[in-house]
Design brief:
There is one protein chain. This protein has about 350 residues and is α/β, with parallel strands linked by helices. The protein is built from twelve helices and 13 strands. It has two domains: about 180 residues, Rossmann fold, CATH 3.40.50; about 160 residues, Glycogen Phosphorylase B (Rossmann fold). This is UDP-2,4-diacetamido-2,4, 6-trideoxy-beta-L-altropyranose hydrolase.
Length: about 350
């Protein structure tokens, strides 16, 4: 057995996506008998990790958004001290504010350095790159070295174990319910805007709207007022198994990100919108492949245009059936199993080829 550490963050400004997918991976490492802990800066992410029963080491540097070379160098020095003190063999990084020098500095002190990527910002000097997005097949990764490992595509997607082995979803002729989500945060109050549009349409008064409230929502009071005033609005806070909500609803309206993979795993026909730059390529490619229907950028979406598109979507039973069947084949919820097994095999192979003397 070996020790694993994960460097990631979650909180206002960056959301909780990195935290959630790293927790999925951490649970699989723990199941396989490894000691695993997190290294973080931001309080919101730390709270969630502790709730899930994992250790957290908080970095001294209190500037989670810093991109300067000196701050990254200081962070790398702090990480190296932790790595040496805790005898870390596998170090995993899931954050965007990195540099080649930062990665190289840490790489010298661990057996395997792993980077979870979405953007391909430069040639990563790491041992393993994980990109579980369908967009990874469009990225031409240039290897840092011949022995660098690339774990690419949806078979390595980091969605949680609750999305494994789900039954086929029944697609009803009539749409009676919709799930509305922006993920863990909603800084632009997009949920409120969607609710205002849907509730203002007299043709949609019978539609049940299941609203997912993320950990970082700042306008919960406003949402609760809307729930009190409208029987059709149902708020869901602190959900432990979001797949149960997805199983209940007929369709979904969702921001880009990990949630789109979860909805596909559940077979939920989905209208997807973009609320951040790093979601645009994913939503575009999922739309091209027929896994979602893209609404484009939310700030460019007009109410009338959305309502027209939503109603056409609701009425097209065959389209929704096809989307559900296609989505079920996209991800199987076993990506973290494959990743941990792959890393285990690499570590074992290295130990066999370099026996202790």
């Amino acid at each position: 057995m070996y020790n694993v550490a994960i460097r990631t963050d979650g909180g206002p400004g960056i959301g909780m996506g990195h935290i959630m997918r790293c927790l999925s991976l951490a649970r699989e490492f723990r199941r396989s008998g490894k000691r695993i802990f997190f290294i973080c800066k931001q309080a919101a992410g730390i709270v969630k990790i502790i709730e899930e029963g994992f250790e957290v080491v908080r970095l001294e540097n209190e500037s989670p958004y810093s991109h300067s070379g000196s701050d990254l160098e200081k962070e790398a020095d702090n990480i190296i001290k932790i790595v040496q003190a805790e005898d870390i063999k596998v170090f995993i990084i899931d954050k965007y504010d990195i540099s080649a020098d930062y990665l190289l500095k840490i790489k010298r002190h661990v057996k395997k350095l792993v980077y979870i990527d979405d953007l391909k910002k430069f040639i990563y000097p790491v041992d393993i790159i994980i990109n579980g997005n369908i967009t990874s097949t469009y990225i031409n990764y240039e290897k840092y070295s011949e022995d660098q490992h690339l774990l690419l595509g949806p078979m390595y997607n980091l969605i949680r174990e609750e999305f494994r082995d789900l039954p086929k979803k029944k697609i009803n002729e009539n749409v009676r319910s919709v799930m509305l989500t922006t993920g863990g945060s909603d800084p632009d109050q997009i949920v409120l805007k969607f609710l205002d549009i849907i509730l203002s349409d007299t043709e949609l008064t019978s539609l049940k709207i299941h609203v997912i409230i993320g950990n970082l929502f700042t306008h919960v009071t406003d949402l609760k007022k809307i729930e009190l005033q409208n029987e059709c609005v149902i708020l869901h806070e602190n959900i432990s198994r979001i797949s149960e909500i997805m199983d209940q609803v007929d369709v979904a309206i969702s921001a880009g990100g990990t949630t789109l993979y979860e909805l596909n795993a559940c077979g939920v026909p989905t209208l997807a919108f973009v609320m951040a730059d790093n979601q645009e390529f994913l939503v575009e490619k999922m739309h091209e492949k027929g896994y979602v229907i893209s609404l484009g950028w939310f700030h460019q979406l007009e109410a009338t245009m959305f309502l027209d598109q939503f109603k056409v979507f609701m009425k097209d039973h065959k389209l929704r059936e096809n989307m559900s069947e296609r989505g079920k084949k996209l991800v199987d919820g076993r990506g973290v199993e494959r990743i941990v097994r792959y890393i285990d095999n690499i570590i074992e192979s290295d130990e066999i080829s370099s026996p202790m003397v």
